[in-house]
Design goal:
The complex is a heterodimer. By secondary structure, chain A is an alpha/beta fold. Chain A is about 45% helix and about 25% strand. Chain A has one domain: 3-Layer(aba) Sandwich (Rossmann fold). Chain A has 11 helices and 10 strands. In chain B, helix 7 packs parallel to helix 8. The N terminus of chain B is likely disordered. Classes of the chains: A alpha/beta, B mainly alpha.
């Protein structure tokens, strides 16, 4: 199986020096869902931002390759890169409350990008948007298209963001904690919807989350990150059956399951954290030599 | 739908209509002043000096708001004074808005060295006392309408730059800007299509506020006799003259002051009203 997105030894640094990502590598095959799991600050969102070219201005990519469909994005000019990303990738952002432009109605907001950037005919863009809203199970698509974002609920807005991400039929979607801002019952519906959309469109999906439970529901493969370093990369089943790294085992032991809800949860112990941090320090020493 | 919001909204509408009615009236008077004033604003008649307004004893018919110590009709002078006030409000307000908002958007959205330079300039500007700065500028530029407008732009652009910069930064950090960027919009495209519509309500509110401030600045400058030539009546000039005879003829001072107050208040209320009406989140 060839990989659609291949990240090789990607290193990102703050312009003042500190490492944010430490030679990260990962491979995602066409039509697969790859999870990026880690604590806050592990750098999982930064991988997505690096691929999409939306890194904060204080960060620099200092080494590595991001190969999308055979093309190394980092060797391209900014303009060329924006064109490729715009045509092949999309983002499902974390917070549905700030991810829609508050001053524009939903319909124009989705259609205008298709028209302005991809050169669609207005009529096609509108009917496409309506079809997509149907597809994400929004009952009253016409009314929703006339609404402003603040008139809709969080779950509704996240559905619209999913529809909007799929609008230009991208080959790669990066979902940055798409369910974190929603409450648990809505989360489940949204996850189901995303899995459904991903399968029917055959999209490759990079799924950033800190929730192992979410990962287990939607992902095929995953990478576990700690302090900007990949601790373990594995196929889903293998990871949950036999996690190899001590930190991964500790993470799983700290995650509730519904097959055994009575089980006591053990927090990740200090020794394990120290061991992982030792690995990171060793990596940095090798890196600086 | 009847909720708490609809109770609050009603007075907002009245506020918008009252303020725009007063400003529209003023604009019409300013345009037509040479043809509709009851008397020539400059004609002196010492036999008609310090006539009181129409409801007091001793008033002369035809001099509704009385006359000043030189026998000039207060109402006619007020009407003529509104020409300068309205011109300065519209022209200086708009130009200040364009200059300040553009710089603020550049600083807040593009950041980098543009932000560095603009923000430092704003810091320096904030250290100047604005009125003294204006007087100094006029002294250098010579008096006249053009100089007043330039002075207002130079002094007040920072009001826009500061607020709009902050607003552009807030909007720039929103996820919808990131999605637009991913979708392939250029920097300028994002500024134009995503940021500007969200900053616009703030710009409009500031613009009308600035128009009010421009009127005040013009009044202050004409109060210290640094406005346009002394033979065209201005509100500030009338206030300055009225001050000297306040015990004998209070109306010469009070009417221009009250007109000024109403006008500035109307500008700020117009801004608030428009913001409430056109901000989709508040609507």
């Amino acid at each position: 199986m060839t990989s659609y997105l291949s990240i090789q030894n990607l290193t990102i640094q703050l312009i003042t020096g500190p490492l944010i990502l430490r030679s990260i590598s990962l491979e995602v095959a066409v039509g697969q869902v790859h999870g990026l799991v880690g604590e806050s600050g592990a750098g999982k969102s930064m991988i997505g931002k690096a691929v999409l070219g939306t890194l904060p201005r204080a960060l620099r990519i200092t080494a590595g390759k991001i190969i999308l469909d055979g093309v190394d994005l980092l060797t391209l000019s900014a303009k060329e890169r924006r064109r490729i990303i715009g045509a092949t990738a999309a983002l499902i952002p974390q917070d549905p409350l700030t991810a829609l432009n508050p001053s524009k109605r939903i319909g124009p907001q989705i259609t205008k990008r298709l028209v302005d950037i991809l050169g669609w005919a207005r009529r096609d863009a509108i009917s496409r948007t309506r079809a997509l809203l149907d597809e994400v199970h929004i009952a009253d698509a016409d009314r929703v298209m006339r609404s402003y974002p603040h008139e809709l609920s969080g779950g509704m807005r996240q559905r619209i963001l999913i529809a909007s991400a799929f609008a230009a039929e991208p080959k790669l979607i990066i979902a940055d904690e798409p369910t974190t801002a929603l409450d648990v019952t809505v989360q489940k519906q949204i996850l189901k919807l995303m899995a459904e959309m991903q399968r029917s469109h055959g999209t490759t999906l990079l799924f950033v989350t800190h929730d192992l439970g979410v990962v287990s529901k939607v992902c095929d493969t995953l990478s576990v990150l700690y302090a900007g370093k990949v601790i373990e990369e594995a196929r889903m089943r293998r990871f949950f059956m036999r996690p190899t790294h001590a930190y991964s085992r500790a993470l799983l032991a700290a995650t509730p399951t519904h097959t055994n809800p009575e089980a006591t949860l053990t927090p990740v112990s200090n020794d394990i954290i120290k061991a992982v941090e030792q690995e990171v320090i060793e990596h940095d020493l090798r890196h600086s030599q | 739908m009847h909720d708490a919001r609809s109770n609050i909204r009603r007075p907002l509408g009245i506020r918008l209509w009252l303020s725009s009615a007063w400003l529209a009236l003023l604009a019409i008077i300013a345009t037509l002043a040479p043809w509709i004033t009851p008397h020539d604003p400059l004609t002196q008649d010492l036999f008609l000096g310090r006539l009181p307004p129409f409801w007091m004893s001793g008033a002369e018919p035809g001099y509704w708001l009385g006359t000043d110590s030189l026998g000039r009709d207060v109402l006619s002078r007020l009407m003529h004074g509104s020409r300068i006030a309205i011109t300065v409000a519209l022209v200086a307000g708009t130009l200040t808005c364009i200059v300040g908002a553009t710089l603020g958007l550049m600083a807040g959205f593009y950041r980098g060295w543009a932000d560095l330079i603009i923000s430092r300039l704003v810091d320096i500007w904030m250290a100047f006392p604005p009125v003294l700065f204006a007087i100094l500028l006029i002294a250098v530029l010579e008096t006249g309408l053009f100089s007043i407008i330039i002075a207002i732009i130079v002094i007040d652009w920072t009001r826009f730059a500061r607020v709009i910069r902050a607003e552009a930064m807030t909007q720039g950090a929103m996820d919808y800007v990131a999605s637009a960027q991913v979708a392939g919009r250029t920097k300028f495209g994002i500024l134009h299509a995503e940021i500007l519509p969200n900053v616009l309500p703030t710009i409009i509110a500031l613009l009308t506020l600035e128009m009010g401030i421009a009127v005040i600045v013009e009044t202050i400058l004409s109060f210290v006799n640094l406005s346009i030539s002394t033979d065209s009546p201005t509100w500030g000039g009338m206030i300055a003259e009225g001050r000297t005879s306040i015990h004998q003829a209070w109306w010469v001072l009070v009417f221009p002051l009250f007109t000024l107050f109403l006008t500035v208040l109307s500008f700020s209320q117009l801004g608030e009203g428009l913001k409430d009406r056109f901000d989709p989140v508040l609507r």
